[in-house]
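Researcher: Go.
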Amino acid sequence: MGAAIANQILGPSTGVGPVTLKVGDLDAMAAYYSGGLGLHVLNQKGSTITLGQRGVPAVVLEHTPLLTHAPTSAAGLFHTALLFDDPAGLASSIYSLARHYPSSFTGSADHSVSKAFYFDDPEGNGVELYWDRPRAEWGWKDGRVRMTTDYLDPNKFLRDNLAEDGAGQSSVGAATVGHVHLKVGDIETARAFYVDTVGFEITAEIGTQALFVSAGGYHHHLAMNTWHSRGATGRWPALGLGEVTIDVGSEDDLGGLQERLTSRSIAIRNDGNVLAFEDPWKNEIQVRVGA
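Model: Structure:
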């Protein structure tokens, strides 16, 4: 790969960092992500709580009680997807949520590359809990990964993978943010921004409905869809998505991204550690060298 081409895409060490949510009821949301899902409180400072596992932040809750919910048709967060190390850990967290928040479960699917379970938190933010099959089992053709939406029986998954003492092991599953799925107004604009400018590579598409992108051959680090938000314009301050963090592998990656954004006259903020900017729908993106 030539240097000029390499400078246009994000490096293979790119991943997704913590997702910040603006929340109305801080206590209820913290209880869901800790007592329900099994994340640990890593830090609490004023009206902000950071949760994660093994010292790695996954979800940041920012108390903003004066904000209200945006309509379903607005751009913003579709879901935050937490990736588990193994099926047993995933099953443990699913079991815990099912016990403590049974009405939050919204569905499950076998996506060929992964097994995924979907929930809504108490304020309606989508949450995906998933486990990846080994990369050697992923199917690729012409640079696109095969992702399906096949039936996955949640009860059978729990029977097959939950330890006998699973009821007391809700935090056993080590989880980090694997990907984030956003609601956007149109896919062509999303492609121009997240692929041509930010530097992700396309891994899958569903016509004009959804786009999946990644770095380094992952099935997707970000996805964008118009299923509920076709035609949406810029967001206004509301509960829900605060910001998405992207971790890149080097200062060169960060510098190349800054050059691409600047060349397209996209406003940026750079405090020396984090490069912050907005996508065309005012979803806040922060990029840093991997913490």
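Model: The first strand starts at residue 15 and ends at 23.
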